[in-house]
Amino acid sequence: MLKRNQFLIMSACAALAVAGCKQSDAPADGDKEAKAEKVAWGYGAEDGPAKWGDLSEDYATCKTGTVQSPVDLPAVDAAKTIKVTGNYGAASAEVENDGHGVKASFGEGFTLTSGENTYDMLQFHYHTPSENKIAGKAFPMTAHLVHSDKDGNLAVLGVMFEEGEANAQVQAVIDNIGKKVDIDVAAMLPSDMTVYNFKGSLTTPPCSEGVNWHVLTTPVTASKEQIAALNKIMGDNARPVQPMNDRAI
Ligand SMILES: [Zn+2]
Predict the structure, then answer these.
(1) Ligand 1 center to residue 144 CA distance, Å?
(2) I want to staple 3 with a disulfide (CB 3.0 to 4.6 A). Which of 27, 76, 128, 214 is the partner?
(3) What whole-number distance in Å separates Cα of residue 173 and Cα of residue 92?
(4) Closest Cα partner for 67 from 206, 199, 197?
């Protein structure tokens, strides 16, 4: 179980392409993943989302997958049946720019409960602009909180950012890249935990499927300057929306 866990945590890391997450003792399953991580990818014309599926056979799911993320979500909230509870607070996080985005990693303690399932939070990271859209609308920024259950199944909670009041938690991240800092995860989220809930994938190579996706219907704010500062550091790091196919939301 531990090995399986390691493999899937690597997948989560791949979602952010976290250099620091590479594990030398990768299990058999992870060998493929480890190799896949060596093939460089990005968001440019030559190495961007349209090319990911061709860059490596290990990224084939980016091209052949049928439940890929992100997606354009409907305007009406159709996800009211799932009860989502976040057990988040303030804790020390390790902040880094891994070359694909800015990420804050946490130790144990924070959890997301979605229906019957409880997941431990591993990290959150930002995308500018948002990856998922709501009724065709992209937001200038999103944060993805990445979680894993004890068996290594992944769940992501996405929160959209609009331009508005400055966000103290976002500022703490911006000011502490490459360092440790206390971040209040709860303070970065809206009080209303209504979500869209749908099946999806990692939004970065290897685009592995089986991710339990949640996007909060209520956005939060960050200032124009904060969003611009993160975009300057990360560049545009959003995969375009993928076909919904016959997915239920
Ligand atoms: Zn993400």
Answers:
(1) 5
(2) 27
(3) 11
(4) 199
| Ion ligand 1: residues, Cβ under 5 Å | 144
Q: Is 125 a catalytic residue?
A: no
Break the chain into its structural domains and give their ranges.
2-234
Q: Is 47 left (phi over 0), alpha (psi -120 to 50) or beta?
A: alpha
Could you give the CA distance from residue 152 to residue 17 in angstroms, rounded to a whole number?
17
pLDDT in tens, 226-240: 999 999 999 999 999
Say which DSSP state 140 is in: S
The token pair at 153 is 């199944």
- What would the pLDDT profile of 103-143 be if each residue is shown by its tens digit? 999 999 999 999 999 999 999 999 999 999 999 999 999 99
Distance 146 CA to ligand 1 centre (A): 8
CA 10 to ligand 1 centroid distance, Å: 14
Tokens of 27: 């299990």
Tokens of 112: 């997301």
Distance 100 CA to ligand 1 centre (A): 10
CB distance 66 to 48 below 8 Å: no
Q: Which one of the listed residues 100, 125, 144, 214 is annotated catalytic?
A: 100
Which amino acid is residue 26, in one-letter code? A
